[in-house]
């Protein structure tokens, strides 16, 4: 097989091939162009949808971050209020404890004074009873019948003198 250049365009079918090639390019250009255009539109639509989903996700993320910040503020307020309330309760308990101690101290002192007064009264009663017993014994030993008669007569005279007045 010998390969040589044929200068006769009609015999070589170069013109036919060129026309066929031009026709194919024209038809394929429209087909491939529309196919590529459809594919490009789909890709652009997918990109736009992805960007929109990204924007929505960013919006939701921002809202979630805002809610988190608000929740954190509320949590901090609750913690501060809890600490304040705990401090007030602790102080109230301490104050109530001090009042209870003061009341118990006062009550104890009053009980001690009362016990002291009772003991003093009992001692005074014992001393008085002992003194009366001693005087009574002394009078029994020293007072004779004659003295008793004089005392009785004197008391009767005083009574009759009081009646006459």
TrEMBL record:
<keyword id="KW-0066">ATP synthesis</keyword>
<protein>
    <submittedName>
        <fullName>ATP synthase CF0 subunit I</fullName>
    </submittedName>
</protein>
<keyword id="KW-1133">Transmembrane helix</keyword>
<dbReference type="GO" id="GO:0015078">
    <property type="term" value="F:proton transmembrane transporter activity"/>
</dbReference>
<comment type="function">
    <text>F(1)F(0) ATP synthase produces ATP from ADP in the presence of a proton or sodium gradient. F-type ATPases consist of two structural domains, F(1) containing the extramembraneous catalytic core and F(0) containing the membrane proton channel, linked together by a central stalk and a peripheral stalk. During catalysis, ATP synthesis in the catalytic domain of F(1) is coupled via a rotary mechanism of the central stalk subunits to proton translocation.</text>
</comment>
<keyword id="KW-0812">Transmembrane</keyword>
<keyword id="KW-0813">Transport</keyword>
<dbReference type="GO" id="GO:0045259">
    <property type="term" value="C:proton-transporting ATP synthase complex"/>
</dbReference>
<dbReference type="GO" id="GO:0015986">
    <property type="term" value="P:proton motive force-driven ATP synthesis"/>
</dbReference>
<keyword id="KW-0175">Coiled coil</keyword>
<keyword id="KW-0934">Plastid</keyword>
<keyword id="KW-0138">CF(0)</keyword>
<dbReference type="Pfam" id="PF00430">
    <property type="entry name" value="ATP-synt_B"/>
</dbReference>
<dbReference type="InterPro" id="IPR002146">
    <property type="entry name" value="ATP_synth_b/b'su_bac/chlpt"/>
</dbReference>
<keyword id="KW-0375">Hydrogen ion transport</keyword>
<feature type="coiled-coil region">
    <location>
        <begin position="47"/>
        <end position="81"/>
    </location>
</feature>
<feature type="transmembrane region" description="Helical">
    <location>
        <begin position="12"/>
        <end position="32"/>
    </location>
</feature>
<comment type="similarity">
    <text>Belongs to the ATPase B chain family.</text>
</comment>
<keyword id="KW-0472">Membrane</keyword>
<keyword id="KW-0406">Ion transport</keyword>
